[in-house]
Write a structure and sequence with these properties.
Helix content is 45%, strand content 18%. By secondary structure, the protein is of the alpha/beta class. The chain has two domains: 243 residues, Vaccinia Virus protein VP39 (Rossmann fold), CATH 3.40.50; 44 residues. Strands 1, 2, 3, 4, 5, 6, 7 and 8 form an eight-stranded mixed beta sheet that branches. β1, α6 and β2 form a beta-alpha-beta unit.
Length: 303
């Protein structure tokens, strides 16, 4: 698998092209190396297929669970940076009144795609605005939920982006930001850019430090209830499943225990030696620090 990814990446370096986001997605749809990415990221040309795939995903089901727990009476949602509308349409199908905010007007990855789906599915509970999150031209305190999927890290101005999202929320409303890229340092960001399969095409990826996200949310008047780190939730590690993550945990644990026994020999049999070793070494079966651009999600409530 690692070798295959390296081979794909080598091809991408040779094919480096300056494209728009829409052109990038149209381009990779015809490339066999990107078949799985197109499916798992909901980039298929068949817009309704993307909607159904997202609606059946573990990520979406977990999102609904969070809505029910933190905003059980919610009726209105602002879907920020909603792309081709996989979340907007599914929320509308669930009966929510949804306002879609998307700056891209295209019918492939933007507001145009949402308009097509809205008309095709005859959904009257969707409004569409073509705008950036830094400039939401809507009144204060009108939404029960503001949902931001894979968009906050694209902010031109992170503080303005978050402030606007909080401003339009009702008091105690839920702001759920999902799958935002996190880095440890600027060198970590560069490594993330190098490994991202699409950044070389359109150059539009970005990432912030976890502290920067938390500060922006707090300064905007949101209370961070939970910061979900990469391995904490299917929201972040999807399309991998809970079973796959658990298998990885077990594999890493066995590998480290084997190294531990080889290193200490008979001393490894001393009671509590393994527990002491974990504390001293800082070993974790799943450690997100090795993933540049790892995903975090934030469950927050407006003050």
């Amino acid at each position: 698998m690692v070798q295959h990814i390296a081979e794909v990446w080598h091809v991408l370096l040779l094919e480096r092209i300056d494209m728009t986001w829409e052109e990038t997605i149209e381009y990779i749809r015809d490339k066999p190396d990107f078949t799985k990415l197109v499916e798992k990221a909901y980039f298929d040309k068949n817009l309704e297929l993307n909607v159904s795939r997202f609606g059946e995903s573990e990520e979406y089901l977990e999102t609904l669970n969070i809505f029910k727990k933190y905003a059980p009476q919610a009726k209105t949602i602002l879907d920020v940076g909603c792309g081709n509308g996989v979340s907007t349409i599914n929320f509308a199908l669930k009966g929510y009144t949804v306002t879609a905010l998307e700056p891209d007007s295209s019918s492939t990855v933007g507001a145009g795609a949402i308009k097509i789906l809205k008309d095709r599915l005859k959904l009257n509970n969707i409004e569409i605005y073509e705008a950036f999150a830094e400039d939401i031209n809507l009144p204060d305190n009108i939404f029960d939920i503001v949902y931001v999927r894979q968009a906050m890290h694209h902010a031109n101005n992170l503080n303005a982006f978050v402030s606007e999202c909080v401003r339009v929320l009702k008091p105690r409303g839920l702001l759920l930001t999902v799958r935002d890229h996190v880095i440890t340092s600027e060198s970590d960001k560069e490594l993330f850019f190098q490994k991202h399969l699409l950044h070389k095409f359109y150059g539009g990826e970005n990432a912030f430090k976890a502290l920067e996200y938390r500060k922006a949310l707090s300064n905007a008047g949101a209370i961070v209830k939970i910061e979900l780190k990469h391995y904490d939730s299917v929201l972040n590690y999807f399309p991998e499943t809970k079973e796959q993550i658990n298998s990885l945990r077990i594999k890493n644990l066995r590998k480290q225990k084997s190294k531990f026994k080889k290193k200490l020999g008979l001393f490894s049999e001393i009671p509590f030696s393994w527990e002491l070793y974990k504390i001293i070494s800082g070993f974790k079966p799943l450690d997100e620090k090795y993933i540049p651009g790892r995903m975090h999600s934030y469950i927050t409530l407006k003050r």
